[in-house]
Write a structure and sequence with these properties.
Number of strands: 26
Distance between the termini: 71 Å
Helix content: 25-40%
Structural class: alpha/beta
Length: about 625
């Protein structure tokens, strides 16, 4: 495992990591930091972890492996209500944290103690990754009745226990839970997905087996950058693969905005990411290409067109001349050594994938899964030049389709369509202490309902075409899948985030669009305006954005009902801090509706918008 120090990474070997984790586990047991908890008719041991991705996060998680302790994983941006809920549900007594959480958790516990039904009263211990605790931190922790231990103190206690011959390892079984990964909670309290050791091992093995058919599988020669939240199953699946196959793991420095600096230093060979970041990368590359003029612009356009042609016709992703003259600088964005990129967690446009493939001169495999399946359940074959699907099932799952007659998605369609359901060794046993939600997700014979509508292609691959959950019906009786449309409209250079809204009492949809600061600011400057809140209400700018959205709607063959008839522009980004997003960056649609109800009402009370071409045509016809 590697940590960035200055302009280089300092590494700890797997052997040393195992030694540290082992003694940390001895110290945790000697200090009774993970006492027995009775729940679901069995005995558990829990220990929470909260921080950004770093070596100590993983070492604590590995220490838990040694004692069959279940890690309760907290997103580093988790809100106070969710934190209190999870602490209460797991009866948590100890958390391992970075130093910046000492004050946050101590204050939260003090605040919680004043409520009518306190939820954090059992939290008694904090293991702090850093050694330089301040007197102020020690005082506020004491006020909250919390014991502070540095990680080094717990490790030293473990070494003492080992030297005295009193240390033991409580080795877990395959079906024991190594982690609770709490789902986003977009519509209510978060659900604790029980992830077992068997699930993550099966997932890592299945993914690597699939990749190894057409390229070199993960090995000790590989390195990946760890920046996706460690509390998320995607990151756990990737790190599980690193443990199984000896792949190096280099942690980002903690600031996602400076991730490219970390990558340039680390030079990874494997790059796992999510559509949100890939869309931004594509947008920035295209903006740089558009800024070129003269012979340089001619060369770039010719290089892009040529490589796209070769790729679509199965002739590979490399071109000796164009890779040297045009795409070498693009490859350097990710360190220049990446041989395989992975995308998952949300849909991504085929156009974005194909563009990035030719720019980075390497394949991007698209995976599909859920927290409930420990991430990977399907993945495309390395070298597949047809984008727009998520591959076929991996060897750890079986897949079937459930008919949805009201949406006309039937297994008897040609090609077959329906809700994707999965069964196998990587499917969760359930949600912790939540039998009602478990019964909703799992059938009696163990099939997991995904909520996604899939179509089986002729080659056996699955294409995700809709959502069975996040849909709504307009007054005409037609169903709208907002996530599908949001994935189209986010491709606009003016759009950073968007939310499509509609309901059964209305005959059209409306849209909220958080603008991309760089491109909106550029437009404002070119038109003698300021990039401020007033620009969000400027009719000329609103029309500019709307025209670009309608361009994308036409290119992606959206029907009339899938085009918003009014839009509202927003300058301030949506984050988990202002409660629009979950820690996994999913939209809290119910919260957004409450927060933006006035704007929704105003849009529906306004005249329908038209793109500039339609306006001009109507004006000409009226003369």
């Amino acid at each position: 495992m590697g940590t960035r120090v200055g302009d280089e990474y300092q590494w700890v070997t797997f052997r040393d990591c195992a030694n540290i984790a082992e003694h940390l586990s001895y110290g945790m047991m000697a200090l009774d930091l993970a006492p027995d908890i009775q729940a679901e008719g069995k005995t558990w041991k829990f220990l929470g972890i909260q921080s950004k991705n770093r070596k100590e996060w993983v070492l604590t998680n590995m220490a838990n492996y040694h004692q069959n302790i279940t890690t309760v994983a907290f997103y580093d941006t988790l809100g106070p209500d969710a934190t209190k809920y999870i602490c209460n549900q797991t009866e948590l007594t100890t958390m391992a944290i970075s130093q910046d959480y000492v004050d946050k958790l101590s204050k939260l516990k003090l605040e919680d103690a004043k409520s009518d039904s306190p939820k954090m009263f059992r939290l008694k211990n904090l293991i702090v990754f850093e050694d330089n605790l301040t007197e102020e931190q020690r005082k506020i922790a004491k006020d909250a009745d919390i014991n502070l231990y540095t990680m080094e103190e717990v490790i030293m206690k473990g070494r003492e226990v080992a030297k005295a011959g009193e240390a033991t390892i409580n080795e877990p079984k395959p079906d024991d839970c190594f982690m609770f990964s709490y789902t986003s909670g977009t519509t209510g309290d978060p659900k604790g997905v029980k992830l077992t050791h068997k699930m993550v091992v099966q997932c890592g093995f299945a993914v690597n087996t699939r990749l190894g058919r057409n390229t070199n599988p993960f090995s000790e020669d590989d390195c990946y950058v760890s920046y996706l939240p460690a509390a998320h199953s995607f990151e756990q699946a990737v790190f599980g693969s690193a443990l199984i196959y000896g792949m190096k793991c280099g942690f980002f420095a903690g600031n996602v905005l400076k991730l490219t600096d970390d990558i340039a230093c680390l030079k990874p060979t494997i790059f796992p990411s999510v559509p949100r970041l890939y869309n931004r990368i594509q947008g920035r590359i295209k903006d740089q290409f558009k800024a070129a003029t003269g012979a340089k612009a001619w060369l770039i356009n010719k290089a892009v067109a040529a490589k796209q042609y070769y790729h679509k016709n199965g002739q590979g992703l490399h071109h000796k001349l164009y890779d040297t003259l045009v795409f070498g600088k693009v490859k350097a964005i990710l360190g220049g050594q990446v041989r395989c990129m992975i995308t998952g967690s949300a849909p991504i446009s085929p156009e974005v994938l194909d563009f990035l493939k030719i720019c980075f001169c390497c394949d991007i495999v698209e995976g599909y899964g859920m927290t409930e399946t420990c991430a990977g359940s399907m993945i495309t074959h390395y070298g597949d030049h047809n984008s727009g699907h998520v591959g076929g099932p991996l060897q750890n799952v079986k897949v079937r389709l459930r008919d949805i007659p009201e949406m006309n998605y039937l297994s008897t369609n040609d090609p077959p369509k329906g809700e994707v359901m999965m069964w196998g060794t990587s499917i969760m046993p359930g949600y912790f202490c939540n039998p009602e939600k478990t019964a909703e997700a799992l059938s009696a014979d163990g099939w997991l309902a995904s909520g996604d509508v899939g179509m089986v292609m002729k080659n056996g691959s699955i294409k995700i075409v809709d959502r069975a959950k996040n849909i709504f019906k307009l007054s005409q009786g037609e169903y709208i899948a907002p996530e599908k449309l949001e994935n189209v409209y986010v491709q606009s250079s003016y759009v950073a985030q968007n939310w499509i809204y509609g309901d059964s009492l209305r005959d059209h949809i409306v849209g909220f669009f958080v603008v991309e600061p760089a491109n909106a600011g550029k437009w404002a400057k070119e038109h003698g305006k300021e990039f401020n809140e007033e620009l969000m209400k400027d009719p000329e700018f609103i029309q500019e954005v709307y025209d670009d959205l309608m361009r994308l709607a036409v290119e992606n063959k959206c029907n009339g009902l899938e085009k918003p008839k009014q839009i509202h522009l927003i300058k301030e980004p949506w984050t988990d801090q202002n409660d629009y997003l979950t820690p996994t960056m999913k939209m809290k649609r119910n919260i957004a509706k409450v927060k933006l109800q006035k704007e929704i009402d105003d849009m529906y009370a306004s005249p329908l918008m038209m793109d500039s071409k339609t306006k001009a045509a109507k004006a000409a016809a009226a003369k």
